[in-house]
Design brief:
OB fold (Dihydrolipoamide Acetyltransferase, E2P); 1 helix; 2 domains; 8 strands; 3-stranded antiparallel β-sheet
């Protein structure tokens, strides 16, 4: 029997369903504390800032800056062997720079010219029945709100 070469597909739960539903619509929503506005990628049981237990979902701009990055040259997951090398990027989101999202950097760029602090924008990569949040370098044609 041959192993499947499909990338793993995320399995949303009821707790994070709004996040995944928004990504399918090419929007980014994050869990937000109703009391203080603190954002997190995944819904928490209690706000780490004010200890409130009430959260809703808030749409964000999808803009941020590169906090750190690295080139990935090898993988132990067979499904990713044809995708190396790729750049793994940590993004500080515009609305709350202390919140760092880790994704792939998509698009055309020269690794040697990447810099911490470069602006990036959300991009959306289909993965089976779900869509993954990725980022790409912000270009001159990106809309500024």
């Amino acid at each position: 029997m041959t192993a499947s070469l499909e990338k793993p597909i995320p399995i949303p739960t009821e707790a994070d369903r709004p996040y995944w539903d928004a990504l399918r619509e090419h929007r980014v929503v994050l869990s937000r504390c109703v009391a203080c506005g603190w954002l997190s990628q995944r819904r928490k049981m209690m706000c780490l800032q004010c200890h409130s237990e009430e959260f809703d979902w808030a749409e964000i701009s999808g803009r941020g800056t590169i906090y750190s990055f690295t080139a990935v040259h090898q993988t132990w997951v067979t499904a990713f062997k044809d995708h190396v090398p790729y750049v793994l990027v940590s993004v500080a989101i515009e609305e709350q720079p202390s919140l760092i999202l880790v994704t792939n950097l998509l698009g055309e760029y020269d690794f040697e010219e990447l810099e911490i602090g470069q602006p990036v924008v959300a991009d959306f990569e289909p993965c089976g029945s779900e869509v993954l949040l990725q980022f790409r370098l912000q270009g001159a044609d990106d809309v500024q709100s």
